Each structure stands twice: as structure tokens, then as C-alpha cells.
């Protein structure tokens, strides 16, 4: 089984210089692509000069994470795709556990490796850690990371095939399944589009998994820093998109209302702690959500057309309650 490794890049020359060599060194005969989102730096010229075997896919404008990959993926020949951030260092034999996973589990449509923090290599990395779940209100959390509490990696997590989502930082997916459920939603632009895709894949009867023997080191925030209000905007708005599109229970409107109330609480917390830009980002996120709601409702109906599986309820109702009220800050403590 051959994997097409697609690295999305936008003005990431410094990151390519730092991280692309490890991908080339440790990826054997698998094909590497750099999909460039209309960079204005020397990313493409440098890649062609130093790694002529890397295939280049160019775009005429910056289409973000979702749009960039949607343009690039049809040009990739391989059936198994690895959508890899340009700020990830891979390790020797990182691909074989994932090849084995996809060969042995035809029901698995998407997967991820173990994500370790490149800045603190004893700990998991925020963006995916050891695999992602959602609570009933569509808040994402991970094995190894609950909100901003990130655990040390002590090999406490093993392979599973029942994740809710796999990290977009190193997102492995079957091309046919990805296209079957509609690819990435480009209205998201960035953040949580992998959660949306995984939710749709689960609706279509597929499973989401992790191969914990595959290890990569993720810098994180290479394109948009964690404290950037723009990131706050995308995360709050796109999470609401996810609920409307993918929560098909009869109580989905109540779930949406509760989530929006909690967003208001978070916005006030930003304001009271002097983070006015993040307060405004939450308000703008809700405004953008209202404007696009008719379109998102249409997408909800599109998902229902291929949804063949009635998904079970989430493992926990509210990660907010678990974390902030019950003070359960580690995955193993959640009830």
C-alpha cells in the first residue's frame, strides 16, 4: 500500500527547511507532494532545488486548509492520503503502523499517528495528542489533552478504532471515502474541518482510528498562533457549524442553544480577563454563524442523505462540567 503525503504550505519556507527533510528521509517509496496556497516567499523554488522528487501542486490563491486540500487531493494518485502540516517532524518507520492499520481494518476511513509536542517532547501535542473525542455539546478533547491541560506521554494510550476524530495536523484518510462524504467544507477555511469530515465519515458507517506506534513531533501554531483572535473566531464558529450539520438527534436545537449560552460565558470570561480581541472574535463568530445558517441547514440535509448509521451518544455529556466543576483534568479521570 502506497501513501500520498500532501503537505499544505503557505509562505512556510522556514518550516519547510526545518521539517521537510525528515519527511523525505523517513517516507521510503511513498510519494510526497507540497500543495502551495499561493505563497509569495521562495517555498516552491527552494523545494524544487533541494528536493526535486517532491511533487508540487500550486494554487492561484490562498484557499486555507479546507480549500487548499480540496484542490490538491484530486491530483494525488494514491488511495491512502496523509494530509501533513508543514510544521511536523516525522520519525523512522512512522508510516508502517498506519499502512498496517488501513490494511487490517477496511472499516477505518481516517486515522492519525501519536502527536508529540516538538517544543516539549515528553508531552503530547495539543492539536491531536493520542486521538480525539467530542462531548455531547461538540467540544473537542483528546486522550492526553483536555482543554489546555496536556499530559506527559508515558505510553498510557494504545491503538483504538473508535475515535470521534483524527487530528488534521497529520490526517490519514481513504481518498474514496473522503470524496464520498463531500471532502472538506470550504466555508470553515481553517480549524475543525477534520472534525466535521470525521463526523460525516462516522455517519457513513466508517470508523476513525489511531496507530500509537507511529510517532510525529508537531510544532503547532506554525501558521496561526494559539493566542490569535482569528483562531478563536474559527473555532467558535466552526463548532456551531458542526452541531447543525452533524448532530441528527431530535434534541439538536437544545444542544445548539446550550452551546451558544456557554459561548457567551466564554466571551464574558475573555472580556473580564482583558482579552477584548477574543471577546470580539466570539461575537463575530456568532454573527458569521447566523449569516450562514440557511446554507448550513442545507448541508445538514445533504449529510442526512448518506447517513446510514445512527451514532451513539458521546462518552460524556459536558467536558466543561467535568473540567471546570468536577476538576477532572486528565482523560483517565473523565466520567
The percent of residues in helical segments reads: 40-55%
- The average pLDDT is 96
Give me the count of strands: 12
Q: What kind of oligomer do you see?
A: single chain
Name the overall outline.
globular
Task: Tell me briefly what this model is.
With 335 residues, this protein is an alpha/beta fold. It has a domain of 90 residues.
Blueprint of the fold:
Elements: E1 3-9, H1 13-26, E2 31-36, H2 43-50, E3 55-58, H3 64-72, E4 80-85, E5 88-90, H4 96-104, E6 108-117, E7 132-134, E8 140-142, E9 145-146, E10 149-150, E11 170-174, H5 175-180, H6 193-203, E12 207-218, H7 229-246, H8 252-272, H9 276-306, H10 319-325
Parallel strand pairs: 1-2, 1-4, 2-3, 6-12
Antiparallel strand pairs: 4-11, 5-12, 6-11, 7-8, 9-10
Helix pairs in contact: 1-2, 6-7, 7-8, 7-9, 8-9
Amino acid at each position: 500500500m502506497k501513501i500520498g503525503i500532501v503537505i499544505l504550505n503557505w509562505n512556510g519556507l522556514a518550516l519547510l527547511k526545518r521539517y521537510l527533510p525528515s519527511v523525505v528521509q523517513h517516507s521510503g517509496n511513498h510519494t510526497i507532494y507540497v500543495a502551495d496556497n499561493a505563497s509569495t516567499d521562495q517555498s516552491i523554488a527552494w523545494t524544487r532545488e533541494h528536493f526535486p522528487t517532491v511533487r508540487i501542486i500550486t494554487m492561484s490563491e490562498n484557499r486555507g486548509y479546507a480549500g487548499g486540500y480540496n484542490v490538491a487531493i484530486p491530483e494525488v494518485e494514491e488511495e491512502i492520503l496523509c494530509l501533513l502540516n508543514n510544521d511536523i517532524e516525522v520519525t523512522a518507520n512512522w508510516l508502517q503502523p498506519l499502512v498496517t492499520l488501513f490494511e487490517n481494518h477496511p472499516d477505518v476511513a481516517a486515522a492519525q499517528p501519536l502527536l508529540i509536542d516538538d517544543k516539549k517532547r515528553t508531552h503530547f501535542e495539543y492539536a491531536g495528542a493520542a486521538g480525539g473525542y467530542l462531548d455531547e455539546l461538540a467540544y473537542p478533547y483528546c486522550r492526553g489533552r483536555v482543554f489546555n491541560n496536556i499530559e506527559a506521554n508515558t505510553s498510557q494510550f494504545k491503538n483504538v478504532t473508535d475515535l470521534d476524530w483524527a487530528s488534521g495536523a497529520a490526517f490519514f484518510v481513504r481518498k474514496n471515502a473522503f470524496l464520498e462524504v463531500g471532502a472538506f467544507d470550504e466555508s470553515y477555511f481553517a480549524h475543525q474541518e477534520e472534525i466535521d469530515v470525521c463526523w460525516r465519515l462516522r455517519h457513513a458507517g466508517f470508523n476513525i482510528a489511531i496507530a500509537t506506534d507511529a510517532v510525529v513531533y508537531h510544532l503547532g501554531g506554525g501558521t496561526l498562533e494559539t493566542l490569535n483572535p482569528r483562531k478563536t473566531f474559527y473555532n467558535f464558529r466552526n463548532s456551531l457549524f458542526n452541531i447543525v450539520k452533524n448532530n441528527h438527534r431530535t434534541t439538536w436545537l437544545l444542544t445548539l442553544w446550550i452551546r451558544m449560552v456557554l459561548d457567551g460565558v466564554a466571551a464574558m470570561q475573555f472580556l473580564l480577563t482583558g482579552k477584548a480581541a477574543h471577546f470580539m472574535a466570539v461575537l463575530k463568530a456568532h454573527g458569521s454563524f447566523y449569516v450562514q445558517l440557511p446554507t448550513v441547514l442545507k448541508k445538514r440535509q445533504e449529510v442526512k442523505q448518506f447517513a446510514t448509521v445512527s451514532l451513539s451518544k458521546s462518552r460524556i455529556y459536558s467536558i466543561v462540567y467535568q473540567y471546570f466543576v468536577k476538576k477532572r483534568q486528565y482523560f483517565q479521570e473523565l466520567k
